[in-house]
C-alpha cells in the first residue's frame, strides 16, 4: 500500500460528563486483526447516543480502531507492531510512528486505560496487569491496588502479570546479537521495544489493563469486550450499576493468577513446535516444547503454562512465553 492510499486520520470519540470524574480511554484494534473490541465500542457509543446508557461523571474517550492501516489490511501490523516501542517520535519513519504521535497525548491525558485485544490460538479470555508498586528503573508504579481492582472487575477467570520484566529478558538477549542493519532489527533491540499502550499509560502516571478477549474468531469475543467496558465504567462510577443489563463480575469467583517469567524467540523459519499449543496449556519441567532448525530441542525449564504460542512468528520475534503461578494478592 502506498503512502497516498494509507489512512490519513485516527477516529476518536469522546463523551464528556457534566460532572467531574475519572478519565477513561477504551481502545481496540491496536493490532488490526484483533477486532473483538471494535464492535463492542461501537455498541457502547450507540447506547450513549440513544440515551439507553447515561454517563454520570468523568470523560469517556473511545478509539475503536487504533491502527486503521493494519485494520484495512486485515493483519496484525501496518508497517510495524504499534504495540511495541510506543512513544512520540519527532521524525516519524512509518505509519505506526504517525499513529503513536496522535495516540500518546490521549493516553497521557487519561487516568485509566482498557485496551481490548485477542490472540491467535484457541483459549479463554484473560486480563493482563502491570507491576506491583515499586520505585525501580524498569517500570515505576503506584497504582497497584486500583489496577488490580480493574483486572478483577472485567470478569475473566485468569489474570496474568509480569509482561515488561519478562520482555526485558528477551530484549537483553536480542541486544547481544549482531544487527542486520534493518530498522526492524534496530527497533527489536531498542530498550523501549516492550513498551505498548498500557506501559506508556503507566509511564504517564495512569494505570490500565490489556484484556485479551479470546481467540481472534471467537464469536463470544465481542460480548466479552462489551461486558468489560460496562464493568469498567461501573467500577469507576461513570455509569449506574447494572447498566445495559450488565452485572458486576462475581468477586468470589475462582481466578487463576499467573506470572510470566520467560520469553523465547523464534530464531529460524524452520523452528517448529512439538505439537499445536494453545495458550495456557500445561507444560512439565523438561517437556519438549519445540525443536530448533538445527535439531536442538527447546525444553521447558520448569513446570507451568505456555502463553501466546505463535507458530507463525517471524524469526527474531516472540515464539512463546512461559508462566508460573503468582504469589501476588489482588485484594
UniProtKB/TrEMBL annotation:
Q: Where are the transmembrane segments?
A: none
Keywords recorded for this protein, A-Z: Hydrolase, Metal-binding, Zinc
For the Succinylglutamate desuccinylase/Aspartoacylase catalytic domain, which residue ranges apply?
20-118
UniProt-listed InterPro entries = AstE_AspA_cat, N-alpha-Ac-DABA_deacetylase
Q: Name one Pfam family in it.
A: AstE_AspA_cat
Q: Which cofactor does it need?
A: Zn(2+)
- Provide the protein name: Succinylglutamate desuccinylase
Organism field: Roseateles terrae
Amino acid at each position: 500500500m502506498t503512502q497516498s492510499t494509507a489512512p490519513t486520520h485516527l477516529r476518536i470519540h469522546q463523551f464528556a460528563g457534566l460532572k467531574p470524574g475519572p478519565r477513561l480511554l477504551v481502545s481496540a484494534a491496536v493490532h488490526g486483526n484483533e477486532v473483538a473490541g471494535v464492535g463492542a465500542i461501537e455498541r457502547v457509543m450507540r447506547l450513549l447516543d440513544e440515551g439507553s446508557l447515561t454517563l454520570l461523571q468523568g470523560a469517556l474517550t473511545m478509539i475503536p480502531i487504533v491502527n486503521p492501516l493494519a485494520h484495512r489490511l486485515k493483519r496484525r501490523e501496518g508497517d510495524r507492531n504499534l504495540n511495541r516501542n510506543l512513544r512520540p517520535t519527532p521524525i516519524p519513519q512509518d505509519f505506526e510512528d504517525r499513529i503513536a504521535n496522535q495516540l500518546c497525548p490521549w493516553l497521557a491525558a487519561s487516568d485509566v486505560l482498557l485496551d481490548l485485544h485477542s490472540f491467535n490460538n484457541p483459549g479463554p479470555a484473560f486480563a493482563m496487569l502491570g507491576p506491583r508498586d515499586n520505585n525501580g528503573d524498569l517500570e515505576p508504579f503506584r497504582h497497584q491496588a486500583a489496577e488490580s481492582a480493574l483486572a478483577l472487575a472485567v470478569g475473566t477467570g485468569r489474570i496474568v502479570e509480569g509482561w515488561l520484566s519478562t520482555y526485558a529478558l528477551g530484549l537483553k538477549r536480542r541486544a547481544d546479537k549482531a544487527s542486520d542493519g534493518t530498522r526492524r532489527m534496530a527497533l527489536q533491540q531498542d530498550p523501549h521495544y516492550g513498551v505498548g499502550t498500557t506501559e506508556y499509560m503507566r509511564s504517564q502516571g495512569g494505570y490500565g489493563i490489556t484484556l485479551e478477549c479470546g481467540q481472534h474468531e471467537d464469536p463470544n469475543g465481542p460480548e466479552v469486550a462489551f461486558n468489560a467496558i460496562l464493568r469498567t465504567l461501573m467500577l469507576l462510577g461513570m455509569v449506574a450499576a447494572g447498566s445495559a443489563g450488565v452485572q458486576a463480575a462475581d468477586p468470589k469467583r475462582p481466578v487463576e493468577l499467573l506470572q510470566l517469567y520467560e520469553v523465547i524467540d523464534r530464531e529460524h523459519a524452520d523452528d517448529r513446535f512439538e505439537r499445536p499449543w494453545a495458550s495456557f496449556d500445561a507444560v512439565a519441567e523438561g517437556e519438549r516444547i519445540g525443536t530448533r532448525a538445527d535439531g536442538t530441542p527447546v525444553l521447558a525449564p520448569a513446570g507451568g503454562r505456555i502463553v501466546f504460542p505463535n507458530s507463525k512468528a517471524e524469526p527474531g520475534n516472540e515464539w512463546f512465553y512461559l508462566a508460573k503461578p503468582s504469589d501476588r494478592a489482588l485484594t
